Amino acid sequence: MKQLLSLLVILAISSSVFADGLLMPNDENYPADFLRHRATIIDIEIEELYAMTVVYQEFVNDWHETTDAVWSFPLPYDARSIKLLYTRHDTIFQAILIESSQSTNPGTGEGGVAALVNDYIGVNGLRLQLRGIEPGDIQKVELSYVSLVDYFQGECHYKYPLETMDFTNYPVEHLELSVRVESDRDISDFSMPSHPNFDLITDDVSQIEIEMLESMAFLGRNLEFTYNLSDNGFGRNFYSSLNDEVAGHFAFFLTPPNLASLSETLNRKVVFLLSTSSTMLGFKLEASIAAMKLGLDELGETDFFNIIHYDYWASNWRSALVPASEANIASAKSYLDGLTASGGSNLQTGLEEAIEQFDDSDYHNAILAFTDGRAPLDPVGLATSNTHNIAIFPIAIGEDVSHARLDMTARMNLGFVTYLDEESDLVEDIHRVFQIVNRPLFNNVTVDFNKDDVHDIFPETYPSTYAGSYSLYSGRYDVSGSTSMDIWGDGIAGQQQYGFPLDFRNDTTEWDLSAYLWAKQAIDNLEQGIEVLGETPARKDSLIALSLRYQMRCRYTAYFADYEFENPTIVDDTHPVLPNSTLVKAYPNPFNPVTTFQIQIGEGESSTPLVLNIYDIRGRLIYSIDLSGLAPGTHQISWFARGINGSQLASGVYFAVLESGNFQGKPLKVLLLR
Questions:
Q1: Can you list the domains of the chain with their CATH numbers?
Q2: What is the DSSP-derived secondary structure letter of residue 631?
Q3: Element (H, E) at 473
Q4: What average pLDDT score do residues 488-501 get?
């Protein structure tokens, strides 16, 4: 019988740390909670602000019996899946997306590990039921998904959920990563602080490519990659494609300047709406107050502000907005120092009180609303009462928040949501939100594509334009052609207009970047409407139709392994299969004149061409040892530091690499000392 995870693991998972994929057996007699995670290969393609991620994983059935299992993956909240592949023996199939509920984790409803996995994969997680995994089989899964990168004043941040130590406290045999970034803007100052031991393949002003390869890797850190984009004034990126079956799709990114001074931005009226519920007690409240103080210091003398805190009810620091004078800011800080956490969390009441603070649209009006729980919210009612173009910016701390209600509230009220986990640098991240909100360049934005056949545009209402942020407009069109897109807005010098020439392309393609971006926004909006306003036949049917057409999973659809059907979807362009063998170590090392390589040959490798190649420090092949036909198990292979022609080698560094077909294992460095 499987053993439940320790209390330490339970506590760790309760904090909702994202992790990599898991394969959980259905058979309760399986000797472990999960099939052994053997390998992960992550391929990330970023086109300036948009990311396509492909993750390939291998799991091994180490049991003596055949088992079924459920694969689970914590798809990031702001991402959408577009394709899922799996293997049956050596054949790769594409999972079909059908109108159905997702598979449940084995044991769901009984608590224990299954309940922890449900918490871990989150509200946007994926599951796939896989059947008939035979003893010694390597089960392979490959997922493709799309997402937008985080962006702040030219700094872009991509994150992949790679932390699995709470479930898999052993090293995976193979971890491989490649990141490619392309941009029309100059790229600089890139880094991968979570995994700094990467190889730089391409380093150009418009392109970056890095690779990383590790054997016996512990998956203890989420992968984080950052890069900076140069300031290009008002820049743009436009993508479009026209498909024969449906109308074309387009996506337009507008990137204002990274920075702007207060003299270049609109005057501001700001309400800081702070939750003082009991769940904010401690660091969350302290960090929120610290960030608010930093925001107060950045207000200009022509700005106005107020502070409202709420629990069951809302309480004002001042009865009305006051000038951002030195004395008022000092008094506000003292008021914040006296706040304590207690009671409930009625964000709706707090927002209603905050909206009442504004009586005109002459300023850039904004509410920064802090929350850390599932507060009641009526996005439609708030939008109806919002008659002065107030932008609402929820800042949600933790995982147990009302995602759909917060997203819909921000979308209908000219703002955006910032989601932070409790392990973030809350002060810095909250302060970043205010630095964007405090740099409004244009209010009352209007957009005209000057093309009669453009339709189904997102967002439905256009938010203000801020320095250091970006705006995404996506939609559909019927015929190709060139036009000019015009954007108007009320700026510091009155109404201003920008024009951008656009070419709506005539390419006939499969779904591409522009289609995925549009479909993601459409599905996100429908899901929000269903969760907040309720399910109707029209909303449900529209959501299912979009999901199946664009192969993006929604709440009513699920991936299904169809290899039992008469005509399954077989994929020809399969991912390279990793050899089930490992170069473990060399000893002695340093050596003279002989070293012995310890190599683990996996099951089913006896018929696979396998070779151990030795290279010098310049990458030249020095020696080759054929390992084909070796029986499964551990082998000791000696090398007498001689070249292919039998010549004696000089002292220096050499690299041993296990290779099979197109696959190369991680190089093992050995040092020859004569």
A1: 7-230 (2.60.40.3680), 235-259+442-534 (2.60.40), 266-428 (3.40.50.410), 581-672 (2.60.40.4070)
A2: P
A3: strand 471-477
A4: 93
